[in-house]
Write a structure and sequence with these properties.
Keywords: Flavoprotein, FMN, Monooxygenase, Oxidoreductase. The strands form 2 sheets. The chain has an 8-stranded parallel β-barrel, surrounded by 6 helices. It has 10 helices and 10 strands. α3 runs parallel beside α4.
């Protein structure tokens, strides 16, 4: 278990679009304030016949304009020292072999600074357009991760699953970190989610929960750690938690409670804000981080 009180690594989670604060400008501003990471979400498109499932038009507009998380990560990694990655990537909608190569290449070039957040997705038609059965998507995500790990860790990689297959193959470069980049599964706090994390991921991204706004997060983390121990996993599960922008005091509270809960990574949700909207949030977040110390 993470030592309570240790400050989480703090960063930002933008929904980068062609209209929001430019990615490199945001990354440099993030790094200049002593923050440590930037991860990007993923939606390749928004099918018009799926609009009824989005919470509102603004959400749909963000997602239909969102930039690719791994292209953004490569740009940021080349120009800053930030940790980069996805949160979350809908990996079932990718070619698993090509995605493994893309992630390994970015990780190799940036010296091991990639984190891969994955999820199942909620948009049935988006999945269908990628040839993914909505009912099978969780299994496809698991097999995608397992196949990618084989490519990342084995000189002669192979995988034989129901949805993903790889005949014995060579593929380099390997990621810098042994075992490959950390893979974090985004999902609701359920026993099944925790079992999945303990079985084939490196950690969990709670969806819709923050330390200050959800008193149930602590017990849920206990449930995660229980599943982790039951599976015989070493070390500890990594946890990434998002929280909304607020005053410096409000964000300090989120970070303090996150530290008490042993959360390793926390990121403020910037959505698709413009430069004028983002910079004050970064300033207040830097103030909050400074209050916690190292």
């Amino acid at each position: 278990m993470t030592t309570p009180g240790r400050r989480p690594s703090v960063g930002v989670h933008p929904t980068a679009t062609d209209l929001s604060m430019p990615v490199l400008e945001l990354a440099r501003a993030t790094e200049a304030r002593g923050l440590e990471s930037i991860y990007f979400p993923e939606h390749t498109h928004v099918p018009l016949d799926s609009l009824d499932i989005t919470a509102n038009w603004r959400m749909s507009e963000r997602y239909q304009r969102s930039l690719d998380p791994f292209v953004c990560s490569s740009f940021v990694a080349a120009t800053t020292s930030l940790e980069v990655g996805s949160a979350i990537s809908l990996v079932a909608q990718h070619d698993a072999i090509a995605l493994a190569k893309e992630i390994a290449t970015i990780d190799h070039l940036c010296g091991g600074r990639v984190v891969v957040g994955v999820g199942f997705g909620y948009n049935r038609q988006e999945a269908a357009n990628h040839g993914v059965s909505f009912g099978d998507r969780a299994a496809v995500v698991e097999e995608t991760v397992r196949l990618m790990r084989s490519l990342w860790t084995e000189d002669e990689a192979s995988f034989d699953g129901r949805f993903r297959r790889l005949t014995p193959s060579w593929s380099w470069p390997k990621p810098v970190r042994p075992g490959g980049p950390p893979v974090l599964l985004g999902g609701r706090a359920t026993e099944r989610t925790f079992e999945r994390v303990a079985s084939w991921a490196d950690g969990w991204i709670p969806m819709g929960q923050t330390p200050a706004r959800d008193p149930g997060l602590g017990p849920h983390l206990d449930g995660l750690r229980g599943a982790w121990d039951k599976a015989g996993r070493a070390a500890e599960p990594q946890v990434l938690c998002f929280f909304p922008p607020g005053s410096a005091d409000e964000m300090t509270r989120e970070l303090e409670l996150g530290a008490r809960l042993g959360i390793q990574r926390m990121q403020v949700l910037l959505e698709d804000r413009t430069t004028d909207e983002v910079l004050p949030v970064l300033d207040d977040l830097a103030t909050a981080v400074g209050r916690l110390g190292s």
